[in-house]
Amino acid sequence: MPVEFRFAHFSDPHLPLRPDDAAGVRWLGVKRRLGRLSWRLKRQRIHQPAVLAALLADVAAQAPDHIVLTGDLTNLALPDEVQRARAWLDRIGPPDRVSVVPGNHDAMVAVPWTDGLGRWAPWLTGDTPEPDAFPFVRMRGPVAFVGVSTAAPSLPLLATGRIGAEQAARLEAILADLGRRDRFRVVLIHHPPLRVGESERRALRDRPRVQNALARVGAELVLHGHHHRDHIGSLPGPNGPVPVIGVSSASAAPVAGATPARWVHYTVTRPAGGGWRLSAVVRGYTPDGFRTDARFAVTTEAHHTAP
Asked: Which residues does the UniProt record annotate as the domain Calcineurin-like phosphoesterase (predicted)?
């Protein structure tokens, strides 16, 4: 097993809408109509293809072993958007090198799996596909990526998420098993499993389910997106705090009050005395290109995960 593994995390690229994306859709529904209006009035100024292209070039220059993307590839989850996002994923990297979980915009309305998220299946299913798509597990070196879906249609003017009792129970069982196998467990989730900001309008509605699972069996890292801003927090685990880290939108330009795009380059190593060391380099957008904004590291002592 490699003693070092490097991976990149970014989120919320919001690939641009095209004027003809709604062609042939006879009834968009209130939710999609509001989303399209939001894009026209504000979001298209923020989510700029040139910024996203610069981020992807910076990621490629660092040559990570793996890339993880925590949702919101689309804006309205229209068929043309979903198909275009699949082609975009093809350009980022092969499915064995890129892992994706969906966001709320990717499930804005209820769409059959085969017509929606199923088109991205190679990037968001596990090494051993299961009947229940989530959580999925991907083993890469010493790291186990555990992909969770919080993507669920919500009412107009809401951007909430939900994990559900069954998925939460599977998540806890998976994390417990991976802990016994001494893997570095990275949970990928779109909505953060703790409170970020003051409003519940964008929150994970049943986040206590995730919090309780982490409190009982733990994880080494939780990565999220959704709020389009940088975030570092933690949740209690059986052997100490579990880091919970989010990033701003991967396509965000510094306009209209938006937090500029950032991505994080993580390195997992095994210290001589056991346990894990996670180091991170935060890369942020400037008009002159991406540069290092911050560095940090977390070291955990060797321990046995609670059963």
From this structure: 5-229
